[in-house]
Amino acid sequence: MRVRTTIPLSCDNVAALPDVTKRGHVIVGKNSDRPATESQPLVFNDGNSHAAGDPIELAYRDLPRTETTFATLGAAPYWCWGYELGINEHGVTIGNEAVFTKPLRRALDQARAGTHQEHGIIGMEYVRLGLERAETARAAVDVITDLLERYGQFGSAVAGESDEEGAYDNSYLLCDRDEAWILETAGTHWAAKRISSGTAAISNELSIRSRSTDRSRGLEERARAREWWSGDHPFDFARAYTDHETAAQVSRIRVQRSRELLRSMERTGEIDIGDCKRILRDHYEETFLDGPKFNAALPDFLTICMHSSPAEFTWGNTVSSVVFDLSPDGIDTMWWTPIPPCVGAYVPFYVDSGGVPDVVSRAGTAGRDLTAPPNVPRDDYAEGSYWWEFMALLELVKGDEHGSEFNRNQPIVRSVFDEVEDAFVIEAEAVEREAQELYAAGDPDAARTVLSSFSADCVSTVRRTIDRLTRMLGE
Q1: What is the model's pTM?
Q2: Could you confirm whether 80 is annotated as catalytic?
Q3: So what's the architecture of 12-398 in CATH?
Q4: 3-state DSSP call for residue 85?
Q5: Given 11, 276, 305, 342, which residue is catalytic?
Q6: Beta bridge partner(s), residue 200
Q7: Nearest-angstrom CA–CA distance, 229 and 210
Q8: Is 293 exposed, middle or buried (0-12, 13-18, 19+ CB in 10 A)?
Q9: pLDDT in tens, 212-221
């Protein structure tokens, strides 16, 4: 039997609800951890009306369209129709996680034995489908679970990898301006839990245990039939469906670190976007792990802000990072950066703006060519790709694959980008107020122009800053 050598063991999602945030907003964060050279451009898709039944061509399946889809903004691997993270025009956000379950293990064993396994819809495609079709987080749970029960989710979701190497099941953190939902899946089965206050965090493990808000029909019965669960005590979804033969590695440490940081912030009742950025940039500094011992670019552990390891025990890098600020009576903001956020710069983007600058939507040499994962060509640096410009900066900051210059260069980059981000936060408040006034005055086109121009100006500022840092670090 072939043992999986490439296991996607990263990604982290966090959320803080209105009762514990500074302005009564919902704040959501996600780090998307993927292979280090898998560019993840930011993509806008407008809402549209369609002829019902027209096909959507996904990685493995064609899916009938709905008559109406909502506008969405998300970060998508260069080969993928779906998103790793995204937001829609109604303020719904979704981020996914790889999880490893007994149904997945069974499907992989059968595939290795030569038994054909029907391909399904991969997790990133479910993220975008939920955003395109749902006006609330609860409705997005329904969209994803209805499709999951019909189409399943088996198939590689890793560029260049076979099903046996790149398949995983998925969990999701779904939020809107009022609440959050955790949705965890195992094959075509699932459990969901509503979060109405406080904070939430998920990583690469099932977390819903004996208490769920909703679940698939026959969930417990199937576990008993497969002898994954027995006894009279309350049914434990995570215990029954987790594949204990796939090493959990340090997903537990990462999610507990997220929860620890959230709890300490929650006590103040004033969590803001800066706090969420702090979590997403964490490497276990000032903990009993005393990480990073050498530097973050020569990692000791899989950390929330993930960096590739020469020993290859990390899966790659955090290739994009996001903080969503969902306003109950204003404009929703997507603060996004490519690469590990400890070296990144969060820029404000808006689904309300009707688009994003072309430079942030460009991949590298492979382009945005939607391809089934096993056939995906390698992407590489290309001029005019915002993501690859950041990747080139990261490599310069590291110095070499062992990060010999990281400890010297990263504080310089962080200091410069912190000033840029702080200015963006102040400017964004004024820009968003102006856009709100234009919407209220019945001039949505002018409002969209204000928002899109601001994002474009911020991107230009960051690109100029990258050029300046490149010259500074190259001296």
Answers
A1: 0.96
A2: no
A3: 4-Layer Sandwich (3.60)
A4: strand
A5: 11
A6: 15
A7: 12
A8: exposed
A9: 999 999 999 9
